């Protein structure tokens, strides 16, 4: 997933959560647009952090897969010899 897609998705979730919170409080949804912005930025920044974590995990998984593939190839070569 791209960085922009991740951040936008999390920001959208933040805006939706703000709307639900206002609905639960029985306040007008159109009140306090600053709160929507704060929610979008706060939850969007969490999305940015999650994207970074996901990238690091994918790199670690790729390195581990390369190591396991090399070990398997070495073991098969030793068994054939």
Structural commentary:
The protein has one domain (3-80). It has 81 residues and is mainly alpha-helical. It is rod-shaped and about 75 Å long. Helix 1 crosses helix 2 (33-80). It is built from two helices and no strands. The relative contact order is 0.13.
Give a brief outline of the structure.
With 81 residues, the chain is mostly helical.
Name its key features.
single chain, 81 residues, mainly alpha, 86% helix, membrane, transmembrane
Q: Indicate the structural class.
A: mainly alpha
- Please outline the major beta sheet: none
Overall outline: rod-shaped
Helix content: over 70%
Termini distance?
Answer: 44 Å
Contiguous runs where pLDDT drops below 50 for at least 5 residues: none
Give the oligomeric state of the chains in this entry, treating copies of one chain as homo and distinct chains as hetero: single chain
Please state the average pLDDT score: 95
Strand content: under 5%
The total strand number stands at: 0
User: What integer value in Å does the Rg equal?
Assistant: 22 Å
How many domains? The number is 1
SSE order in H/E notation? HH
Supply the number of helical segments: 2
Keywords: Membrane, Transmembrane, Transmembrane helix
Transmembrane segments: 29-50
